[in-house]
Amino acid sequence: MSGQELGLAVAVFLACSVEAVEALTIVLAVGATRSWRSAFAGVGAATVVLAALVAALGPALTALPIGVLRVAVGGLLLIFGLQWLRKAILRAAGLKAVHDEAAIFAEESQAARAAALEQGAFDGYSFTVAFKGVLLEGLEVAFIVLTFGANQHHIGIAAAAAAAAVVVVVLAGAAARAPLSRVPENTLKFGVGIMLTAFGTFWGAEGAGASWPGGDAALLVLIPALAIFAITTVAILRRASAGGSGIAEVVKA
Amino acid sequence: MTKLKAAALAVWDFVVGDDWLVALGVAVAIAVTALVADSAVAAWWVLPVAVVALLLDSLRRAARR
Fold it and tell me: What burial class does residue A163 get, using C-beta atoms within 10 Å of its C-beta: 0-12 exposed, 13-18 middle, 19+ buried?
């Protein structure tokens, strides 16, 4: 496996892990408080819809000219990556509440209990919530796999990395029997934000006609450089926050 | 709210996120990269510079809220 293939696998694995954690939290919440059977039915139905969508969209994406694909995918990844990175930096600097899976689990459980349990064996509420959660997060996983995979013509590697991420998260959830609050999600999102931003920058520029010094090896500089920049920004924001300086002034400076 | 409007909002939220200026900035930066790449000047540096500027600006606005 080449360095770029390994980078692709790691980026897809990390990004899909985050989505899988979010979907699992929702399914666990409605399953534990309402109906496991109906929640699993929702997961199954969402999986079927996802498979149909991927089958329909996959060939269309791979048939696009590589330059167009790189600009479109690079731009989207860059937008996603910057949003993730911004939130992760704000959370790491203590300026935004940390995404708490335990709190989300409690909220979902309370909402599930509050909704009246329907008569009969099938619970429509559990089915719907699990279906929506898995479909939404699954779409994001499918998007990551198709775009990363199609861009480098390695859909197989991307799909395998995504499948591994889902299996690892589900096994971790089953072992912990809890909403995976032990998974340091913000750390994961920080890393994913850096990877998405780096790949988005690389492909976006290539698609627009730029040539990177060193070719694909430029990614090996881009990723650590972005990480150093993000970590330094967190440190500066933390110091400013502790020192009572206005954050806006520090960033502005 | 109609289902169509809700779907459009969901797509907007999915693609653009909660800071539309970042999305706009990325689109402009890619366009500038294409323009520079058409000239004799190297264009690879445009996006990294834009990423740093957009991230710092977005953080500054988020911190002000």
Answer: middle
CB B55 to CB A82 under 8 A? yes
| A89/B60 Cβ within 8 A | no
Residue to mutate among B26, B39, B49, with most A CBs inside 10 A, is: B26
Q: What is the model's pTM?
A: 0.63
Contact A229 B52 (CB under 8 A): yes
Measure the CA–CA gap between A67 and A190, rounded to whole angstroms: 28
Report the complex ipTM.
0.90
Contact between A138 and A50 under an 8 Å Cβ cutoff? The reply is yes
pLDDT band, very low/low/confident/very high, at A109 (cuts 50, 70, 90): low
Give one DSSP letter per residue of A177-223, joined into a string: TS--TTS-HHHHHHHHHHHHHHHHHHHHHHHTT---TTGGGGHHHHH
